[in-house]
Design a protein that fits this description.
single chain; 684 residues; alpha+beta; Cytochrome Bc1 Complex, Chain A, domain 1; 21 helices; 33% helix
Length: 684
């Protein structure tokens, strides 16, 4: 069943990447942007209200934003997240179920956050929608029962991210750029979440959910006079208060460019980020040149970075960059990508090369024109959305921008010159003070990075300094590939128990991001070398079927059947047994390649052609296997990790399987059977 990961990969990409390669807009005449000016008024408690009439559709949207300065939560990080999740659970006036039922009845959407709320729906229900939003926001029903549920859910979400390379990379980026005591650098942990009590949530709400810096933006089929009456009635009793404003020192960039390395032994791809902090606001003269410079370097599909790493070299699905802006303090420039381990050092070299290019060479006029056209096209499309109109109206108020800021937006983008781009690239993309953050598998990645002669510092997956990770070491004398396999068979139950297994039936499921339902997997094997794999999804039926018999095999998808080639069949037969190791033990080509650290333990490494197997030195159990897959000129490494071994009729079988090919699919086995649940009909 070596094709499982490939089948699932194709499905994942089909679901999540349909819009990745869109034709870029061609340059044309710049459209005129006419954003309606809001009517404004304020309440005595400090709430500012902005109303934009738009009668094109019978709809209305409300956006309540509390524009407080950011604050660090310290050892109670998670209090704002829990405040957000508890808001909207009904109110002290209306029970949760009844509250949500009415929202559904109206066909509305209402959401609540620690920093505000939003709602939208048909304008004929505008009054009731605003009433419900105000009720949920100003009369929250904070209960211990809901608090316990949401806290446990938050912790469970963290646990699912423990081995996520992407999650570690994002966390470390912010910790190293800002410092873990800065509002932008602190992170959630089980410890900090458990430090939060219901009383802390209530106090957070009282302290920060206040009207002094609050803005209510209304966009849609409404009358300003009517809105004013409604807002005065619903929000007039909101008690006047000002949130505390804490100040934090701006983070410092490193004195010299360096690699900050995080070892993740389970990584099949390296996460790479080029990061430095910047000081930039909407109102800065450099704002528009920085936007365009970022598009040229990595913000656009046709950017220097993406064209190099994706199109020219085929190392990644995508490479992107962004430059943030923040009126309260420093933000950051960051360029990031994911590449397979073996090309990590090369990708770093190429990313730095493109950074040097934008800093030292004027961008080609045609390239610049096309990048501007693409950006402007997307800007114009966004302007049509009520949420965008609301955000722009709010930005003008909170950022101190001129009233015609967005009307002149396109003109200011078009005014950016190649000289401007080179100037701001040197100011905001700091080639000499850059953190090159790499999160990957040390044994695969470090030897190449060390050859770059860039200083390397080591951190754990929470951004704390650490020692250089342990590298591969030799296996003890007398240990061979065959003895490791024998020890595995012993560990899962012994030769007699394993040989007594005639059939295995496994059913599991996993969640795919952006997919409409969990993906289901059924695997069946017998001791005759026959196997069945079925992938399905509720609402979509059977997506893929693969059958291997003694004489051949086939796969079918969407009604199309494809017979296995002789090469594919031979590959499947290499592990055609109830347990792969029953075949592997007689393979003379296995090579024991020492011991590597893996997830806090040591593992024997066995090479079998393009496949690498890892077995726990202490327990003998198989931890994972990885295989280099080649599709045309594209190469990718697929890793399958095994855990949660449970006894089934005297044999230990993993009940959790994680397939990683740059993204993770975590399969939890709901039904595992030995010597039952398999018939000849399964292999037809």
């Amino acid at each position: 069943m070596k094709k499982i990961a490939i089948i699932l990969s194709s499905l994942f990409l089909t679901i999540t990447m349909q819009a990745q390669d869109r034709t870029q807009p061609k340059p044309g005449p710049s459209p005129k942007i006419n954003i309606k000016k809001p009517e404004t008024f304020s309440l005595p408690n400090g709430l500012k209200v902005l109303v934009v009439e738009d009668h094109k559709l019978p709809r209305v949207s409300y956006s309540l934003t509390i524009d407080n300065a950011p604050y660090a939560e310290g050892n109670k990080k998670g209090v704002s997240e829990l405040t957000s999740s508890l808001l909207g659970n009904g109110s002290t006036k209306t029970p949760k179920d009844k509250f949500n039922e009415e929202i559904d009845f109206l066909g509305a959407n209402i959401n609540f956050y620690a920093s505000g709320a939003s709602a939208n729906g048909l304008s004929k229900y505008s009054k009731r929608i605003l009433e419900l939003m105000a009720e949920g926001a100003l009369m929250p029903n904070f209960t211990q029962e809901e608090f316990d549920k949401d806290r446990d859910k938050l912790i469970e979400g963290l646990k699912t991210q423990e081995k996520s390379v992407s999650a570690a990379a994002n966390r470390v980026q912010d910790v190293l750029a800002y410092g873990k005591n800065h509002p932008s650098g602190e992170y959630l942990s089980e410890e900090t979440i458990n430090n939060v009590s219901l009383a802390d949530v209530k106090n957070n709400y009282r302290t920060y959910f206040v009207p002094e810096n609050a803005y209510l933006v209304v966009v849609g089929d409404v009358k300003p006079k009517e809105i004013k009456k409604m807002v005065e009635s619903l929000f007039g009793s909101w008690v006047k208060a000002t949130a505390p404003r804490l100040t934090y020192s701006n983070p410092k960039n490193v004195q010299y460019t360096q690699i900050n390395f995080v070892d993740m032994p389970n990584a099949v791809q390296s996460e790479i980020a080029l990061v430095n902090t910047v000081s930039l606001k909407y109102s800065d003269p450099d704002y528009f040149p920085v936007i365009v410079a970022n598009q040229v370097y990595g913000g656009d599909f046709n950017s220097y970075l993406n064209m190099n790493l994706r199109e020219a070299h085929g190392w990644t699905y995508g490479a992107r960059s962004y430059v943030g802006n923040d009126k309260y303090g420093d933000s950051k420039f960051a360029a990031s990508t994911q590449v397979r381990n073996t090309v990590t050092d090369s990708a770093v070299v190429e990313a730095l090369k493109e950074l040097k290019k934008i800093r030292t060479e004027k961008v080609d006029e045609t390239v610049l024109k096309n990048v501007k056209a693409g950006y402007i096209g997307r800007f114009v499309m966004q302007v049509e959305k009520p949420a965008t109109v609301a955000r722009y109206a709010l930005n003008i108020q909170t950022e101190g921008l001129p009233a015609d800021f967005y009307e002149n937006y396109i003109k200011n983008i078009n005014a950016v010159t190649p000289e401007d781009i080179m100037r701001v690239a040197n100011k905001y993309m700091l080639a000499d003070n850059l953190r090159i953050i790499v999160v990957g598998k040390a044994t695969d990645v470090l030897p190449g990075l060390e050859k770059l002669k860039i200083p390397i510092f080591y951190f754990d997956k929470y951004g704390a300094p650490t020692e250089k990770p342990a590298m591969k070491k030799a296996a003890p004398a007398g240990v061979t590939a065959k003895s490791v396999i024998e020890n595995y068979i012993k560990a899962i139950g012994g030769e007699k128990a394993v040989m007594a297994v005639k059939t295995v039936s496994i059913t599991g499921s996993a969640t795919i991001p952006q997919a409409p339902a969990p993906i289901k997997m059924v695997i069946k094997k017998d001791n005759k070398g026959r196997s069945l794999l079925v992938i399905s999804m509720d609402g979509m039926g059977e997506l893929n079927r693969q059958v291997v018999t003694e004489k051949g095999g086939y796969s079918s998808a969407q009604g199309q059947r494809k017979e296995m080639t002789a090469e594919e069949f031979a590959e499947e037969k290499e592990t055609a047994a109830t347990f792969d190791e029953l075949v592997l033990i007689n393979n003379p080509n296995l090579v024991l390649d020492g011991i590597e650290p893996m997830n806090g333990t040591d593992a024997y490494v066995i090479k079998n052609g393009k496949t690498t197997l890892y077995y726990d030195v202490k327990s003998g159990l198989k931890l994972s296997e990885s295989k280099l897959e080649e599709q045309g000129d594209k190469k990718m490494t697929v890793t399958t990790a095994y855990s949660d071994y449970k006894d089934v009729k005297g044999v230990k079988i993993p009940h959790a399987i994680t397939i990683n090919q740059g993204f993770e699919l975590n399969f939890i086995m709901s039904d595992v059977k030995v010597n039952e649940g398999v018939t000849d009909a399964d292999f037809k």
